[in-house]
Amino acid sequence: MRIKRHKDYKRYMNMYCQTFKFHKPYQVLVDADFIQAALDQRMDLRVMIPNVLCDASKQMVTPCTMAQLKSRGEEASGAFIASKRFEKRRCKHQDPVEESICISQIIADTNPHNYVVASQSKRLRVQLAQVPGVPLLYIHRSNLILEPPSEASLKTCKKIETDKTHAKSKELQTLKGLKVSALAKLLKKKMGPKEPNPLSIKKKKKKPEPTTTITSTTTSIKKRGAESEADAGVEKKKTRRRRKSKSTATADASATTNTTTPAGSESS
């Protein structure tokens, strides 16, 4: 698959997911001619369809399509065996009906179950293209092709986008009601002298709070500090006196020793 085509397919499926709420894995309804064409081209639908849809998918077959393949006999025996591998999707028909009628009834007018339809019938594809939100697959030669979104699906997509962006009628009515109520409040305002600007008014001075406890505590702390400083000064003076007394005692001792030494030398 070409890169450009793959990007286009991815964009298509993203659009279906966002606007029509498709979920993964995608459910693909397959008709008899599509299975036969895939078998003739030797295509593995369990691999090709997820590649085209850019995500996982479940291939589904109705009992009416299986009955149609069985009625064709030996020519469609291979396609009938291949259809047994797919998941069966129940339909309301007790007796088998043409598969185009069966598939169109399942899709209905809105595709409520979000099916992807894989069909080789051009008439059926044209019929389903009128229903918004129906991705269509078909085989051209050996290529599996996803048709671009139909006009109906594009119109619904634009409508959903506009509904998201624009206000609804109920919302507009509520907005009108709010506007009327706001105008009524403005008209009900009393006309008269306005209050002065609060910034231009002098502020009242606050009364000083009693600080007796704080002052008493501060004075007691100061007294304690002074007493401790006085005690420290007394201790310093005492230490100085002790040092002085020690220094004087050592000086006297050294002087006495100096005087005694020369007398001893003369006697000798």
UniProtKB/TrEMBL annotation:
InterPro entries: Fcf1/UTP23, PIN-like_dom_sf, UTP23_sensor. It is found in: Nucleus, Nucleolus. It comes from the Eukaryota. Residues 237-246 have a biased composition (Basic residues). One of its GO terms (cellular component) is small-subunit processome. Residues 187-268 are annotated as: Disordered. Keywords: Nucleus, Ribosome biogenesis, rRNA processing. Residues 210-220, 247-268 have a biased composition (Low complexity). GO terms for biological process: endonucleolytic cleavage in 5'-ETS of tricistronic rRNA transcript (SSU-rRNA, 5.8S rRNA, LSU-rRNA); endonucleolytic cleavage in ITS1 to separate SSU-rRNA from 5.8S rRNA and LSU-rRNA from tricistronic rRNA transcript (SSU-rRNA, 5.8S rRNA, LSU-rRNA); endonucleolytic cleavage to generate mature 5'-end of SSU-rRNA from (SSU-rRNA, 5.8S rRNA, LSU-rRNA). GO terms for molecular function: small ribosomal subunit rRNA binding. The keyword Lipid metabolism does not apply. The keyword rRNA processing applies. Residues 188-206 form the UTP23 sensor motif region domain. Involved in rRNA-processing and ribosome biogenesis. Belongs to the UTP23/FCF1 family. UTP23 subfamily. This is U three protein 23. It comes from Lobosporangium transversale. The lineage of its organism: Eukaryota, Fungi, Fungi incertae sedis, Mucoromycota, Mortierellomycotina.
